[in-house]
Each structure stands twice: as structure tokens, then as C-alpha cells.
């Protein structure tokens, strides 16, 4: 049994508390999903539970973590740079080859990887995750902490990950943006919230599936809000009537009492009763149902004025051969995109989807008749990590632009410190929000998106799906997000070595 007791996490520089007094127990077979908005401290929590030294230098932990004899194994959201430049065989040096072969088989890797001199950075996203998990299994880890393990996974590998999490005998604590995976695997939800404009942390540990938790939470918040509004309306009516009576008695005291002392005494008693009633009202108010104190959803919306005529040809691409690193990835690619169309591209890891989208973006972003925007899979392609969000969104520096940008950042739940701090200090999900904010502010009419929801929390993702579904411009998107595919795109192509094949 793993026991996490009264764990509190505080940022060293700002002294902002990310997690307060979290207490939860994990048993064998538990699949605990950590959810919450971007920047709430989910990754910091996983690191602290695994090894507090992983957060040294930027955060501090109070409380107790008792592992109960379990050996933790941690998979970071991004693989360290020093590992990426090493050969795959280096991960398995010193281990018994037969044990290595067993671990490789368990995660669906070819045993040849144990002796491969191929650099880890050349493997697909799914292969990198599998390599890390195989290494943990070999080391004897029986408590896995996985930070966004579904990033960069194709649909086939996503389904493998669902199966692996479900089959693993030990406890797993994981963060994921993939709502489908959460719905199919989690039996315990840790919800990390920041309420009252990110000034008050709150943690909930609920033993339930993800869909059940969200449904129960939504219903409870809705019921509480209804009760609070009803009680407030009743209270307002009573206090309004009290105000009327008070004014009548007060007026009578000023006029009647002088001519009739007897009436004056009666009015004084009545005023005393009225004031006593006021005090009762105040006590009643303290017992009223409060409005729900829940973390607010982000707010993003494209202007209604953005649209492209249905007959406008946005893209008419013909690529005889698509190559990367000297290797031909696909041939005979034909792709057409018209105004208002929403098209998605799927395919196995390494098929060339990102290469294709990047090539298309170079052409479309230079078109003077379009306002095309490109959101890369790896944000460093477009970010100066030393820059602030305000600088990125308002490069002019004009006061009006800065004020407008600050308002938009506030709607996306950025704190003042986050607005003015370096982008490099933000979470992956917060960086994703910056791209969406820039597209909104620039009034982009063509969106070229490479895995746009890969770092968004499952609570932000529905908002993003909604704005994309209602977007009146054109969208070309590479994604493996199954809910995004179902809710936003009518046309879906699979990229194969022989070109694009329409599958929907």
C-alpha cells in the first residue's frame, strides 16, 4: 500500500502553493489519474512522489510518502536530451539479456533493440515511451509514475498503452490529456485545482472512473449553483421587504413620535423587533448554500467574422515524393482543402505526417490572400523560451495591445506572474494555449495544427474542441486525439507509404 499523507507543494520563487494537504492511498492494481488545468502542478506532484530531489531548485514538499516496499519508476513528459543522443542499447547495459528480451516483449518491442546502436532520438514517439517503460521494468519498478505517456502516440500505440496500464499488476499514477484512455483505465481520480483566480489550491481524491467522476462533479456543481441562486433570491426578497418596513418605521419615528409619545414608545419597540429580524437574516445568510467554488473553465473564441467562402481553394497539393532524413516516407500525395473544410490526417508514428504539415505550412503561411497559422507539435520551433507570453502575443509593445493581450491571457487562466515570466517556465499545456490565443488574436482563417491537444488537460480539451468545431475557416490537422477526430472532422485521411487514403 502506497500512502501519500498531507503532501503540500509550494513554488520556491513565488511561494504559490500548488497542492495542499493531499492524502490518498494506492493499492496494487490502482490506476490513479491526475487531472487539472495546465500549470496546476500535476507534473511537479508526480516528481515529488517519486523522488523529492526531482523538484529541488524550484519547489518544496511537506508531508509524507510511504511507498510500502514498492520501487517507483518515473517516465517524464519529455525525454532528457542526454538520453536522446545515446544509443538504445545503452538503456539496457548491465542487465541480463534474457530479462531484457522479456521486458522488450512485454512492451511490444523487437528484442533486437537491446543491442541496437541506433540513437534514441531517431525512434518514434511510441517507441521512446516503450523503451523507457522496458527500462523501468528491468530495474524492478513496480509503481509507475507516467507523465503524459500518450504524447506522440499513434492510435495503434494508444490502444497498446490502454492495455498495458490495465494489465499492469502494480499501482500506476499517471497524467494524460487523452480522455478516451482516462475513461478506459482510471479507477481513481486525483483532481488538482486552483480556485479563486489561482490563489487557493484544492485537491480531491475520488475513487471512481473518469467519466463517472466528471458526471458526478458536473451534477453536484449544477445542483449547488441552483440551490445557491434560489436561496439568494429568497434572501433578497426577504431583505427587500425588511428594507421597506425599516424605512416605514424610521419615517414614523421621525414624524409621529413627536406628537404622540405613546406611539413613540410603540414605534421604538417595533424598530427593536425590525433590527432583531435583521440580525436573524444575517445569521441565516451564514448558513446559506455558497456558490460553487470550482476552477473556472478557460475561455477562448474566434471572432464570428472569420470565414472563408466554400468555393475558395485553400490548398491543391500534389507531392510526388515525401522524404525526411534521406528516406522516402510516402509517394503520390494528393490533398485538396477548400474554404470552411476541416480535414484531419492520421497515420502510424514515423509515417511523415509532421513533415507533410510543415511543408504545407511553409507555403500557406506565405500566401497574401490567407491568414494562415501553424501550430507545430514541438513548440520550440516557434517559441523563444526566454520571451514572456505578453511579448509573444503583443510584439508591438503598444499599451492598447498589451492591455488586450493581458485580458485574453486572463481568460485562459494565466496568473500575473505567468503572463510576465519566461515561456520556458510554463507547462506544455500553457504553451499550447499561447498558440490558440495567437491564432484568435491574429484572426487566422486557416489553421494548420500538429497534435493541438497533446498537452492540454482533459478539462481544457472540450473547450478547444468546441472552438474548432465552430470555426468557420479551414483546418488541416494532424492528430491522434480520438475525441477531437470524432467531434471536429468530417474528413479523415490516413498517410501511408502510397499516399493519402480517405478513411472517413
Structure notes:
The chain has 3 domains: 212 residues, 3-Layer(aba) Sandwich (Rossmann fold), CATH 3.40.50.300; 69 residues; 190 residues, P-loop containing nucleotide triphosphate hydrolases (Rossmann fold), CATH 3.40.50. Helices cover 40% and strands 22% of the residues. It has a 6-stranded mixed β-sheet with strand order 5-6-7-3-8-9, sandwiched between helices. α15 links the parallel β14 and β15. α3 packs across α4 and α8 runs antiparallel to α9. The longest helix is centred in the middle third of the chain and has 50 residues. The protein starts with a strand and ends with a strand. The model has no long low-confidence stretch (mean pLDDT 89).
